[in-house]
Design goal:
- With 89 residues, this protein is mainly α.
- It has one domain.
- Helices cover 61% and strands 0% of the residues.
- The radius of gyration is 13 Å and the shape is globular.
- The termini are far apart.
Length: 89
């Protein structure tokens, strides 16, 4: 597995549009899985959609979550990002 700073919205090889999509996806999954425990993470990800400087704050918030919350979020995020695109031909 890639290091966390190269995963999801923290990946350096993605463009701004993809980063925005990953921030939104990660935020939605985090909120659904861990609810209000992810408020700081979700707030930072929302800010990161338009200003990547907030990604560091989001990473710190993510790292501060309980390990079970992190595993559940990552376990749900990974299949979403790795699913094949049905319309790609």
């Amino acid at each position: 597995m890639a290091s966390l700073d190269e995963f999801g919205p923290w990946a350096t090889s993605i463009d701004a549009c993809e980063r925005r999509a990953r921030c939104r996806t990660f935020r939605a999954i985090a909120r659904m899985i861990a609810g209000p425990r992810t408020t700081a993470l979700c707030d930072a990800l929302a800010c990161s959609e338009n200003d990547p400087a907030h990604l560091e704050r989001a990473l710190v918030a993510f790292e501060g979550l309980a390990s079970l919350d992190k595993r559940r979020i990552l376990g749900s995020f990974h299949p979403v990002m790795m699913a094949p695109t049905p319309c790609a031909a």
